[in-house]
Design a protein that fits this description.
Layout lengths: L17 H14 L5 E5 L5 H9 L4 E6 L2 H10 L5 E5 L12 E7 L10 H11 E12 L4 H6 L6 H15 L4 E15 L2 H9 L10 H12 L2 E2 L2 E15 L7
Parallel strand pairs: 1-2, 1-4, 2-3, 4-5
Antiparallel strand pairs: 5-8, 6-8, 7-8
């Protein structure tokens, strides 16, 4: 277990690209020539999936999504013959044991129902090969963008529960080692319509929006508008767990 695991580092100011952070986590596997089969769980729009495929030309990616509407869109517009989009939840993936070299979750672990978080981490461990990497990038419940989103969708509790599940997993001898990094990523929206489409009107969630609530969010958002859109910096935390080799497990 990492004694320094922390939900949020309020002093972190380093701005990094998501792919650069992921590269650091996967570099040991890549350097050993052991990065070939990758599973992404909760791929959303597939934007990160496509970036990963572009960055690592020698890997194949299975990308799972539980939202059937978004899944169909991903399948229709897929431009990579190395990406396969499938339906499946984190707690019950449709794969045999020891299928993947890495399992990735970007901003999706906290969407797993709280009662199923430990089962999801067990399932990730099951489908990983020994020495494989489980990587979780989670948004931190802080910052100006978060204050706008919490007006209609407060995720403080679920993000805490997801972090607690990672802390428990890091102390499990089935995982050989673990690492954590805090960073920030820039986020830009062209205007409120862009924000509403990407964040408020997503197909996987019903936020119970009323005209009054939308107007409240609009006012808060437009306070950040400039001639070049609305710019934010989102604090992030990435945790990586390495599946122990058989001889390492107690």
């Amino acid at each position: 277990m990492i004694p320094t695991m922390q939900l949020h580092d309020p002093f972190c100011s380093e701005i990094r690209d998501e792919i650069a952070v992921l590269k650091d986590a996967l570099e040991p596997l890549s350097a050993q020539g052991r990065l070939h089969e990758v599973l992404e769980i909760g791929c959303g729009t597939g934007e990160m999936t496509r970036r990963i495929a572009d960055t690592w030309p020698d890997i194949s990616i299975c990308a799972l999504e539980v939202d059937l509407i978004q899944l169909e869109k991903n399948q229709q517009r897929n431009r990579h013959d190395r990406i396969t989009y499938l339906h499946g939840p984190a707690e019950h993936t449709p794969f045999a044991a020891q299928t993947f070299d890495a399992v990735l979750m970007f901003k999706s672990l906290h969407h797993v129902p709280a009662a199923l978080l430990d089962r999801a981490l067990d399932e990730i461990h099951r489908v990983l090969r020994p020495g494989g990497v489980a990587y979780f990038a989670e948004p931190v419940f802080a910052g100006e963008l978060n204050e706008i989103i919490r007006l209609f969708h407060d995720e403080e509790e679920v993000r805490q529960l997801a972090f607690d599940a990672l802390v428990r997993a890091s102390g499990d001898s089935r995982w050989g080692s673990a690492g954590e990094i805090h960073y920030r990523v820039p986020v830009r929206f062209m205007d409120f319509a862009d924000f509403e489409r990407k964040v408020m009107r997503v197909t996987h969630s019903d936020f119970g929006l009323t005209p009054q609530r939308v107007e409240q969010v609009r006012r808060a958002f437009e306070a950040h508008m400039t001639d070049d859109g609305a710019h934010f910096v989102r604090p992030m935390r990435a945790n990586a767990l390495i599946k122990a080799m058989p001889e390492q497990q107690r």
